[in-house]
DNA sequence: CGTGGCTTTGAATCATATCAACTGACGTGG
DNA sequence: CCACGTCAGTTGATATGATTCAAAGCCACG
């Protein structure tokens, strides 16, 4: 299977050095089963991850035992970066399906800043984008009804799955339970159920076994509180002044003995 | 007034080059009045900001005209980074008090990656920390009562103000209206009022004019859903392999003619 | 001394949570 | 091949927290 590199090349033009680096990351992969913990909240932070295949939740626990899912990760996502500045992970990572990922040691990230500033800058931009996504999610949860939250999440998910090439005829595999959706959107699983039924009844979506189809995208958009912002691509990198573009600096491979 | 540089030196040991850079940023400042827009959502993104003095809200608008405040910024914070990857700003910035800040052109950030990788890495870590803060906020809002949300926010605020040296005897200036708190915590201003009164009645807090005092921190912690995670400092940078630590690279000033 | 912003209060209503029970699909072991 | 247990989804009745609307009070400022 071709790993979903589209996200890694999002902000920075593909360069041979970067490509070498990525393939070296992608060479040793780990596999996780459904429901397996990839990293528990509180574990020492020793690496970040690149998700090659499958879905992963990133969640925060509360004292009373409940948890808030803060992000549903899809293939191509980088995982674990928020905890980079923490001694112990602030977010748990759990496999929602069978998962294949690459573990990237922290020192590797340091080398990136040292030797491939353009890639480091791209990574930086990409995590800022995640910050916007979090802000967006906060907005859904903070100030809309259940209907808007569910609609908003489904639209966002659809868009991301589409970008990863995982949508067929408006439909996609959907491994989240209603309880998961509840933990993600700040609702009870039960209320999620009623809301999904409502969406179903209005003909916006179609649910079968473990698959979901968005039929009426515009209908959903009418229910959702706000649309996703437009992301820049290479332009953003341009505006930063193209870090690393022309600089003569030691090549990664020359030092990597 | 001494600008609050503590945040800039959080993850990286002070170096003469970095100090020069920071003082060059800090040399031209802008001033904003209370309630003035620093940047509107949708404005083209041309710079980021360093907040020297005053409070600033960062907020996202919704179609129905309501807005969600996603962060209350205090002196020493970097503003506007989430929109770095967007053509048009995804978050509005508004002065909550009189404000003094420095505007940093995007190209300056690019230069950072190019020429001072250690500072770039520190900036990266610092924005990851912000991501954790957002996740934390999401957790409050997604899965707790009004009481927990308010208590959690006040504790977090107190901690940050304390780090900035703005707390005196447990008390601090508090320019947020109850409506602001509502927009921040996903509640009605009215409900915030009732909640504050409740906290007041139990003796956890004390409100006077535009000032707030947290009297019973442990009591508040009992109400809040979760405590803030422990942040690493220089250690985090160590774990990354100290980018830029020993590298001989062109000094910033030599090129800055 | 009046005006406008912010806070406080009450009553009615709505959305969501909670509790409890039932259903159907699936996988497992006898 | 069937009986069983588990897990996800479904449904109803009731409780509660938060919103909405309306109005009064307070204070600061011009």
Q: How does this structure look, described?
A:
Two copies of one chain form a homodimer. With 257 residues, chain A is an alpha+beta fold. Chain A has two domains: 1-131, Sandwich (Jelly Rolls), CATH 2.60.120.10; 144-226, Orthogonal Bundle (Arc Repressor Mutant, subunit A), CATH 1.10.10. Chain A is built from nine helices and eleven strands. The first copy, chain A, has helices at residues 16-27, 106-115, 117-143, 146-163, 178-185, 189-201, 217-223, 234-239, 252-255, and strands at 29-32, 37-39, 47-53, 56-61, 67-73, 78-79, 92-95, 99-105, 171-173, 205-208, 211-214. In chain A, strands 1-8-3-6 form a four-stranded antiparallel β-sheet. In chain A, a hairpin with a 2-residue loop joins strand 10 (205-208) and strand 11. The interface between A and B is large, with 70 and 69 residues. The first copy, chain A, binds a DNA duplex (30 and 30 nucleotides) through residues 145-146, 177-179, 187-191, 193-194, 196-197, 209. Chains A, B: InterPro entries: cNMP-bd_dom, cNMP-bd_dom_sf, HTH_CRP, RmlC-like_jellyroll, WH-like_DNA-bd_sf, WH_DNA-bd_sf.
Summarize the structure.
2 copies of one chain form a homodimer. Chain A is of the alpha+beta class.
CATH fold field value of the largest domain in chain A: Jelly Rolls
Question: How does CATH name the architecture of the largest domain in chain A?
Answer: Sandwich
- Written as H for each helix and E for each strand, in order along the chain, the element string of chain A is HEEEEEEEEHHHEHHEEHHH
Strand content of chain A: 15-25%
Give the tally of β-strands of chain A.
Answer: 11
Strand order of the largest sheet of chain A: 1-8-3-6
Helix content percent band of chain A: 40-55%
Which structural class do you get from the secondary structure elements of chain A?
A: alpha+beta
């Amino acid at each position: 299977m071709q790993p979903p590199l589209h996200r890694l090349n999002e902000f920075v033009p593909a360069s041979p050095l970067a490509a070498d680096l990525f393939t070296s990351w992608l060479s040793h992969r780990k596999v996780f089963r459904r429901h397996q913990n990839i990293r528990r909240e509180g574990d020492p932070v020793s690496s970040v991850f690149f998700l090659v295949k499958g879905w992963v939740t990133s969640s925060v626990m509360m004292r009373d035992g409940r948890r808030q899912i803060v992000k549903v990760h899809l293939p191509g996502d980088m995982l674990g970066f928020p905890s980079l500045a923490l001694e112990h992970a602030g977010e748990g990572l759990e496999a929602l399906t069978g998962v294949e990922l690459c573990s990237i040691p922290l020192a590797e990230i340091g080398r990136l800043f040292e030797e491939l500033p353009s890639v480091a800058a791209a990574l930086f931009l990409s995590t800022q984008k995640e910050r916007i996504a979090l802000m967006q999610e906060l907005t859904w949860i903070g100030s809309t009804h259940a209907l808007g939250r569910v609609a908003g999440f489904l639209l966002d998910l659809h868009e991301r799955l589409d970008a990863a090439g995982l949508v067929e005829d408006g439909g996609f595999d959907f491994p989240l339970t209603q309880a998961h959706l509840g933990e993600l959107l700040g609702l009870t699983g039960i209320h999620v159920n009623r809301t999904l039924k409502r969406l179903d009844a209005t003909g916006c979506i179609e649910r079968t076994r473990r698959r979901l189809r968005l039929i009426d995208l515009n209908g959903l958009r009418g229910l959702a509180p706000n649309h996703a912002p437009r992301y820049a691509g290479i332009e953003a990198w341009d505006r930063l002044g193209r870090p690393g573009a022309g600089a003569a600096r030691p090549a990664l491979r020359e030092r990597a003995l």
